[in-house]
Amino acid sequence: MAITSSQIQEAILNCLRSGTSRTTREIKHHLETAGIRDYTPGQFSGSINTLCRQKNIKCVSRGTYRINEVIETIMQTSLKNEPREEDPNLAMMKLLLPKLLESPEMLQNLMKLSDAVKKVN
């Protein structure tokens, strides 16, 4: 079965989820361990470029990438397990985060909305 670019992008985001910068070699190793092996160099570089262009990840140096801080904050907030009553915003983010990671376009729209709100405030 052919691997799609969206599958590669999702796996790249999962690799960078920890917030640590990773080299392309480390990202490719993560893809391989996730069972994603049958892709072209163009699919990989195109996926990296798309994620950078959509501001889901950023290039910190040549061949080294890191998840965007806004995405990292969303992930950290949504993954915390605190015993106190859950904040309604946190509950909403837990529901939205998986969908945002599945759809780069939806995530890009959220980033644009965030930028617009920052400009207004």
What do these coordinates show?
With 121 residues, the chain is mainly alpha-helical. It is 64% helix and 9% strand. The chain contains six helices and three strands; from the N terminus they run H-E-H-H-E-E-H-H-H. It has helices spanning 5-16, 24-33, 41-53, 69-79, 88-102, 104-120; strands at residues 22-23, 57-61, 64-67. Strands 1-3-2 form a three-stranded antiparallel sheet. A hairpin with a 2-residue loop joins strand 2 (57-61) and strand 3 (64-67). The model has no long low-confidence stretch (mean pLDDT 82).
What is the topology?
Blueprint: H1 5-16, E1 22-23, H2 24-33, H3 41-53, E2 57-61, E3 64-67, H4 69-79, H5 88-102, H6 104-120
Antiparallel strand pairs: 1-3, 2-3
Helix pairs in contact: 1-2, 1-3, 4-5, 5-6
Comma- or semicolon-separated keywords:
121 residues, 6 helices, globular, mainly alpha, three-stranded antiparallel sheet
Query: Any low-confidence stretches, pLDDT <50, length ≥5?
Result: none
Strand order of the largest sheet: 1-3-2
Outline, from the CA principal axes? globular
Q: Please state roughly what percent of the residues sit in beta strands, choosing from under 5%, 5-15%, 15-25%, 25-35%, 35-45% or over 45%.
A: 5-15%
Question: What's the N-to-C terminus distance?
Answer: 48 Å
Rg, Å, rounded:
15 Å
What is the count of helical runs? 6
Count of DSSP strands: 3
Instruction: Estimate the mean pLDDT confidence.
Output: 82
Classification by helices and strands: mainly alpha
Helical amount: 55-70%
Largest sheet: 3 strands, antiparallel
Order of helices and strands: HEHHEEHHH
